[in-house]
Design brief:
The protein is of the alpha+beta class. The chain contains six helices and 19 strands. The longest helix is centred in the C-terminal third of the chain and has 17 residues, at 213-229. It binds zinc ion. Residues 61, 64, 146, 149 line the site of zinc ion.
Amino acid sequence: MHFEEENRTITINGDSVAPGQNKLLRIEIARLPTGTLIDIPVHVFNAKKKGPTVLLQAGLHGDEINGVETLRRMLENGDLSISKGAVIVVPILNVFGFIHFSRDVPDGKDVNRSFPGTKTGSLASRIAYHYTQEILPQIDFGLDLHTGGGQRHNFPQMRYTEGDEMSLKLAMLFNAPFAFASNLISGSFRKAAHKLGKPIAVYEAGESMRFDESAIEIGIKGVKNVLFGLGMLLDKPEQIPSISLEYRKWLRAPRAGMFIPEIKNGKRMKKGQLLGMVTDTYAKKHKKIKAPFDGHIICINHQAVVNQGDALFHVGR
Ligand SMILES: [Zn+2]
């Protein structure tokens, strides 16, 4: 007689989610000056059948709301009825930043530079610490959903860790329009997770404080692609063509002034093609920005007034 091995129980903050259960839990972080308790909502879907535990996380930067909406829609649409393993969903990691429309916590620190954190450190460091203690030990690997910082608009793209086969696999399964390896930044969630042997792939799409419908839709498809590829969802999602980039470069403002892009994000560019201009405000001078090679535009800065050296286009081939 064959018995299928049962899935494990997930325990977060003292709350248990047994195989076959779905629960909304909370990790208590800190209080506002008014005494209001701030906690991080954590949705846990635990299937009966054994399988991997996958983290789906957004809002590590509080103003990067496309990921928050991507996960909210998936929860609302019942997209996470998995057949095996478990999914831990954290739609808003940095609750403080989210309610302040900010990337950071109120003291200006970036939670994504504060991992693994300490119990008695700054607020960002404490959030990172609680998260490292409560969530990371429970997962096998995960997806971290972001957008461009500031007013930079990222065309939907996946980033994985060089030499980490599983993070590459997650990025390939996700199948966003672009994918490439990017360095582990000190203090980042991805680096802290990597050190604990938990591969993370990062989805970057759209810009902060703006909903981008295509970023959200590709995000939903991508998460479903990953869960399907891992055998956790049974219906095959629709596929989008994906391009792997081996080389990337930022094109920066040659002068200060007003930035006028002449190409749309995600488009193919030909070497020497005019991509945009930075003009003065007197209609006297302008500097052209030209494509340095045949390739693709993967990010455009939507800031209209720029300083010399500002990152304007992220391009790759
Ligand atoms: Zn971010």
